[in-house]
Amino acid sequence: MSIRLRINLVLFAAFFAIASAAGWYVNTIFMKQTNEHVVKQAAILMESALAVRSYTVDLIKPHLDPLLEQKFLPQTVPAFAATETFERFRKKFPNFKYKEAVLDPTNPRDLADEQERAIIGRFIENPALQDTSGELFRSQSRFYYVARPIQIKNPACIACHDTPERAPATMRQIYGDKGGFGWKLNQVVGAQIIVVPAFEQDAAAKDMLKTIAILFAATFAILLVVINLVLPGRER
Ligand code: HEC
């Protein structure tokens, strides 16, 4: 075997060993960064939904409550305010989602789907659980979610969510008697769920990895050419 061939083989082997190790390492770092990023995004959005809820309760509801006798205004309902605000946000960021998913909701749009029912089940089974999070896949795309339980802690909630007879008549005119009733104090009725698109971050990380791989391969190729140029000619 010529010395040139031997040098080239050793260089190739070294390149593959270094490229595989570096690829694995960079990929691990990217995955960690992606996860940290989506976790943070979900936490920020959850806090902003909670802010809309408390704004509604503290600053809007007291002004509109006196009108309740004549006309029911869903704008006083924190769940409605948070959901509507997020729907507006979604016009620009459609891959994000916020839902007050409930097993037996007042507004049918809040009805929990199968994945959401599983999350709510976790809170029902474990009442001490304050939040839960994880991955979920929709149309084969990776998302990350954060959820908090919706528990009836305040007796004031029962005024509208106990029996249809006890609920304001003006509310029943809009929502009917079908759902959102029979909730008990301390019962976990649903979960606030924020869903953020992890697949967008995954794609960005993959692009970056590809760029690094190309740069790495190009550097190696140039090195290989240069080394072959300076090596003495064919051995006899
Ligand atoms: C004045 C009546 C009223 C009171 C009091 C009230 N709610 Fe509601 N709630 C409603 C109405 C009406 C809706 C449906 C709003 C919509 O259209 O999105 C609703 C919706 C909800 C939803 C979303 C799921 C669903 O049923 O559509 C949750 C969760 C909820 N309420 C929890 C509570 C909690 C917790 C309290 C107490 C802190 C409370 N509600 C007090 C009337 C009320």
User: Beta fraction of the residues?
Assistant: 5-15%
Number of domains: 1
Mean pLDDT comes to: 93
Ligand kinds: heme C
Q: Figure out the total of helices.
A: 6
Helix content: 55-70%
Radius of gyration: 28 Å
Largest sheet: 4 strands, antiparallel
* Poorly predicted tracts of residues: none
Helix and strand sequence: HHEHEEHHEH
Structure description:
With 236 residues, the protein is α+β, with helices and mostly antiparallel strands. The protein has one domain. Helix content is 56%, strand content 14%. It contains six helices and four strands; from the N terminus they run ααβαββααβα. A four-stranded antiparallel sheet has the order 1-4-3-2, with helices on both faces. Strand 2 and strand 3 form a beta hairpin. Helix 1 runs antiparallel to helix 2 and helix 1 runs antiparallel to helix 6. The model has no long low-confidence stretch (mean pLDDT 93). Heme C (HEC) binds next to helix 2, strand 1, helix 4 and helix 5.
Concise account of the structure shown:
This protein has 6 helices and 4 strands.
Summarize the SSE layout with pairings.
Elements lengths: L2 H62 L13 H15 L4 E6 L11 H12 L6 E7 L2 E11 L6 H4 L7 H7 L12 E10 H33 L6
Antiparallel strand pairs: 1-4, 2-3, 3-4
Helix pairs in contact: 1-2, 1-6
The chain binds heme C.
List keywords for this structure.
236 residues, alpha+beta, 4-stranded antiparallel sheet, binds heme C
